[in-house]
Amino acid sequence: MPQEQPGYNAAIAVNQVGYRPESHKYAVAKDVGGTCQLINAKSGETVYSAEAEQVHDHTNDLDVYQFDFSTVTAPGQYYVQNQNGRSYPFMIGEPLYRPLQNAVVKALYFQRCGCALLPEYAGQFTHACCHTQKTAKVAPDCTEQLPDITGGWHDAGDFGRYITPANQCIFNLLYMYELFPKAVCDDLNIPETGSGVPDLLSEARYELEWMLKMQAPSGGVYHKLCSTEFAPPHCMPEDDDFELFAAPISLQATAGFAAATAAASRIYRAFDAAFADRCLHAAKAAFAFAEAHLDDIPVDIGTVSTAPCGGGVYGDPCAFDELYWASAELLRATGDPFYEQRFAHYYEQDFSKTDFGAYNQGGHGSLCYCLYEHADPALRQKVLADITAGAQRAKATSEKDGYGVALPADGYCWGSNAALTNLLGNAVSAAVLLNTDEFDDCIRFGIDYILGCNILSKCYITGFGTDSVRNPHHRPCQTDGIDEPIPGFVSGGPNAEQRPWDAEGKPPAACFIDNEWSYTTNEVTIYWNTSAAFVLGYLTNKFEA
Ligand code: 9MR
Ligand code: 9MR
Ligand code: ZN
User: Fold this and answer.
1) What's the distance, Cα to Cα, between the start and end of the chain in Å?
2) Which of 26, 164, 6 is CA-nearest to residue 85?
3) Residue 524: exposed, middle, or buried by beta-carbon count in 10 A (0-12, 13-18, 19+)?
4) CATH architecture of the region 97-453+520-543
5) Closest ligand 1 atom to the C-alpha of 158?
6) Residues 6+ away with beta carbon under 8 Å from 376
7) Which residues have CB under 8 Å from 145's CB, separation 6+?
8) What is the value of pTM for the model shown?
9) Which protein residue has the closest C-alpha to ligand 2 atom 4?
10) pLDDT tens-digit map of 190-204
11) Pocket residue to mutate for ligand 1, from 519, 522, 523, 527, most atoms within 8 A of Cβ
């Protein structure tokens, strides 16, 4: 439930953090139209007033009233007022996206496993070294054993470590580094800060080092690492002593891993050639393994949990998108025409060429191929047309939505905030490849929505805005005895498919509850964060360099 704060009218939704001066800016009221005012919060002076425009919000099937105040560009603190009250305050000014981007990346540090979180980096959110179990048996027979499973990030509010979402994280972070150089910094205050390697890459490497341990000598990659049951909800990481098991090798994990490590070999080469070689070797072996076992490793292995390895399922019914992405990455990393032929082959298979995500990774492959300088012109043109069409769809949806959201009405699923930022990732790809501003409004409106311009007036990033998520389903946050949540986490968001308990009959974007038990709406994950970081990186690089 939105917590109505005294003196405020939560029916008037704004980006609670703020708007850049040159941006297209509007507030959305769901109660009344009529004249709205933009008020300078310090002086109380009305700086602008206009009639709100009535629009029908198709997603939530209600009339809303948009108050456009784009003409106001003077930096300051403001609020919007209508006849029923006033919105939460917000800034017009800068920097806007950079601090958010940095917090959202820094949140990954708080997910580190196999080390203590120290006060000099973690502030009050410290904990002792966790999950120190060194070896793990492989399900189902438990005869095989992985020699070293330590490290990486906890996936989410649970402590499982899964390869497919990890692959997406590596994509998001490495492409952020590559495409948005002006967004990259070395001052996130993580243990590697000041090392000369950008923090983004140091943090990503923490995960990569663990991922490399999840590869068998055959080249195959184990799908995940989990205990049989989730740790109890109130449990600090260091108190979770459930035994961890590896899930069997899957095609999806192996092919996605090939893609992620091939990208890593290209990006880290300038900093550490030996690490780059390790990554490339791992990538080639994983790709060869996946292609050699397409007929004898059932794709279903990646769609179920194999006891005694429990945890989240991360069911992914298709490996072609990961193979497509891996072909593109290996082509870019090696220039070997063999991989171009494989890429062309997988392009013909039936899966989305534009989806960004932990399950559907075709969009990663498409962006990668279009960035390859020796790409086949005819094939590149087709791939670019796919990317462009995807971005145009996102833009068209956003223009029809009362709150400017690119997510279709049936897109409010588990992790809908990331479903949105994944769509925006496609729009960002188009914007970069076509060098156009055409999708910028759609991209920024999506961020406005996540920061509070939504039907609940809820800011979905912890630690930002007036009424932000305070009770994520995240075991450390639920257990540490500290009132505030760890900052910089993107909550999963409204879920109309597995509704929270008070959401019967509510419109899709209202199916959310800021409650620690609502894991279907209010969990946080590494790949939801990196998906948002990629979009924020685009905006930071473009507008705040
Ligand atoms: O706490 C678990 C959360 O981290 C997972 O994402 C989620 C979905 O797999 O499951 C949660 O665990 C719940 C379990 O599925 C059902 N019983 C209640 C658990 C929450 O404490
Ligand atoms: O995002 C996943 C959702 O689509 C599934 O329905 C749900 C239950 O299997 O699991 C979600 O993923 C969770 C994963 O299983 C465990 N880590 C946290 C993930 C996000 O809640
Ligand atoms: Zn741990």
Assistant:
1) 38
2) 6
3) buried
4) Alpha/alpha barrel (1.50)
5) 4
6) 340, 344
7) 135, 136, 137, 138
8) 0.98
9) 414
10) 999 999 999 999 999
11) 519
